[in-house]
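Task: fold both queries, return tokens.
Query 1:
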Amino acid sequence: MRIRYLKVLRDLTSDYGKNFMLVLAIAIGVFGIGVILGGYSVITREMKKNYMGTIPASATLEMRDSIPKELMESVRSFPGIKDAERHATIVARMKVGEKWYPLLLFVVDDFNDMRTNKFNRISGALEPPSKTMLVERTALVMMQAKEGDNIVIKTPNGNPAEVKISGIVHDPGLAPAWQEQAGYAYIALSTLEQLGENPEFDQLRILVDANNMSAPHIRQKASELADALNKHGHFVEEIQVPPPGKHPHQGQMNAVLTIFIVFSFLTLILGSILVATSMQTLMVKHVRQIGIMKTIGATSGQITGIYFFMMILICLVAMLFVPPSHAAASLLYNQVAALLNLEITDRSIPVIVPIIQVIAGISIPLFHFEMFFVIVQDW
């Protein structure tokens, strides 16, 4: 038995160059799968957690006129509606240096009782005082400002006015400001009036109480509510139903990561080809040794066991690349998180990822191991 192990050790050390190439070929495939699948699993999990944590509205009803506060209780008690909230969105402009950029002003009814499309406070005030605003964190770079600075803002019907940044927030439901080349800010109704606009809410955001992941069901309930509002003189001009439970940029993310996954499996195929080539090269040297071992009485099973053990050792060495691949995966999902304005709260990679890596790392060489078995049987 010791002689077999000694042969394996000498085979591995005497031709370390070819054996190293064999290890490298397996490791390339294992590493690529770990990076892509690890990054993909973390991003998809965190994207859903970030976005659903904001309690995104099931639908938004664009109203012709202002929504009176007393109407909200009737809306919330409407059959099939779980909750509702008044909102308004103003497309304003902000002055940065000598240039003007778009600025989306989100008017919040009650900062202490937000029911839909919530955000996370980072610093400063939770409820912005009059003539101040909360700014989404990615917009600070666009504004070239920080908390406490004043920004010149002009609304469609108002004059340019300075508004102080009283707090910083994170809204996972928004794309980074630098992607949209626009700023994001949250203000109270009193601030909207001071900026020269009518102090009114014209958006009704609702949450349905059942089948809230079914777009047809959401649209049906929103239409029923719209019909009831129209009958009572509160006219609905448009109903918007976003894809339920999906981040606004999930489609782009899936497309990019799908391409990466395809490339990772192409890398795995390349590794398989390299393994086959390396094993064929290795066979040239060992064909004669197999013949000698059979001549002195070694059985086919014993010889196959020797090379099988050697291949397992090579696979185990290649598995050392599994942990580094997870570290590289963190670089991937951190970059994607920055592109999607996400906050990674759980960096753990699912157990299924290293399991897939180990299976792939062992399967590649064992798939080609049959060539050794055929040669052993032929002698």
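Query 1 returned. Query 2:
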Amino acid sequence: MRTLILLIITLISSGLSAQVAVNTDGSLPDNSSMLDVKSTTQGLLVPRMTSAQRIAIVSPAEGLMVYDLTTGSFWFIKQSVWTELADKSNGLWQVNGSNLFYNSGNVGIGDSDPAAALTVGNGDKFQVQASDGDVTFTDDEASINFPESAGTNSPMIYMFSGGTNNQNRMILAHSPAYSNTGLRYNDLSDLFQFVSNGTVGVNVNPSGAIGINTNAVSYNFDVNGTARISALDISSSLEYLNDAVVSSNNATPLEVRRSQINLSMTNVASGNFLDANFSYSAFDGNPTIIIGNLTTGTGEWYKVQITAFDVTTTSCKFRMVNTASDAITMTGSWSILLIGPK
């Protein structure tokens, strides 16, 4: 009976004060609380139910909380929607200091079925692979835009600042199916190269020299093969190495060859002449023979007039005429130039 009377008095007192303190030390409730539960050996036990029972609650009030036995977690009503109090240690996203990370599966932004570790856009338009960090754009109209660089030493694209020597240090290819065709930087030889099916066609070295069909760029413009030039303005000198082929306006290529002819005369009288034969590889037509400078000579070679005649596609003759007033003896080697159809 005394216990019942004490309980009635406690309830009446609680109703008058509008605050309830549940404790074993008789302390008053905190002024900011309606219910103040205090214990060091026991806890607060909220209603426990299954997910079906929780969802079946009619018109749940904002802030209503229960423990869901099915999910093993607390749920509360927020803006009329059941919201789970998730355990961050078991959630998808994890926190490490000020960092947020996710180690399981793929992440999709605007994509409910991401194909890579990070996918942006419906249809996996932008992908970042987890294994090696490859970045892939699957949209054939995708582009990368860089803002205008204001800094003096601010490159628009900067990559591979270090590392070991690599022939394929950087490749701009047509597509993955043509990975050996495109623009390549080769840091083995420090060259930018235009490559087709793995074969280098054009090399550009750091000095700006361009080599076509040659990896050994020795001149500012170095062509190994036939070149077509519609107009050529030479301000200093023109040099060619070995034989060369030049195309004229009539579309007939002309081959230019350098050679040498050795001639000699012994006691040839004034006004007389001596002929010498000269052979060469075949042209497609009769070449033009130009006699150049004397490279070596003895005797009175300066009194001799030399003329080429009987020119064919494979040979010609040189006539040496004594233009002096007396007999002469001489030997000499002359450089010659042959220009003919090829």
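Both queries returned. Flag for query 2: The chain has two helices and 25 strands.
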